Fold:
Amino acid sequence: MGHNPLQSIPAGAKRGWSVKVNGAVVDPVSVVEISHPRYGVLNYGSVGGRYDSWNFMEIGSGGVVTVPYARVNGALYIGLVDQERDNQGGRVLNVPRGFLDPKEKHFEAAARELEEETGLANLNDRMSEFPGQRANPNSTFFVTNGDNEGVAFFGLVIKPHELERDPGHVVPELSASAVAVDPVVSLKLRADMVKPVSKQAELIYSCCFLPISVAIALSDMFTKVAAGLVLQHG
Structure:
């Protein structure tokens, strides 16, 4: 993990943020740190003594995204998990992703998250990190100033015969959006390709494969980036 660029807020510095603890405003505040041993540190402080701001320093340098994808009859498809994301308003489609466990390598985390969220296992020989620099989710708030820090994106090639049609898949996010999806273009992994997934921990309903034109139009930023990487390198 890199270094925290925020400093202690000097007296008289311009402040735009307020800090509340148990509903009560705490003032004046010079430095705030909220930490979790697995996820990272949320900091509040001063940007060069000019103004106040906050940032997040994530354990594992930004986490991992694993993008299962397939080329079927010349068209690219991306594997997405249908799950609950309260910050996105409920049930949505996202590419599989997650944080690193303590002392875990990025490749190990990418394989683990893929297995946990899709049921795909023992396909590590097909998985590789996409070329290019690792990604900063939002450079205003996320700190990735250490060596090779940022979100790591991995691709995993799925073979066409490992998929089958999934005409019954309906996702509220798509049903309510301007993106029209013909049910016959929704695909799913063959049952013999996956092992049972624990749906309780992350409220994951299923995994489906949709055309890249649909995936890139979804609301999740990581999914949009993943679609672009598959278009470039898939």
In short: The first strand starts at residue 19 and ends at 21. The radius of gyration is 20 Å. The CA atoms of residues 131 and 233 lie 8 Å apart. The chain has two domains: 1-59, 64-233.
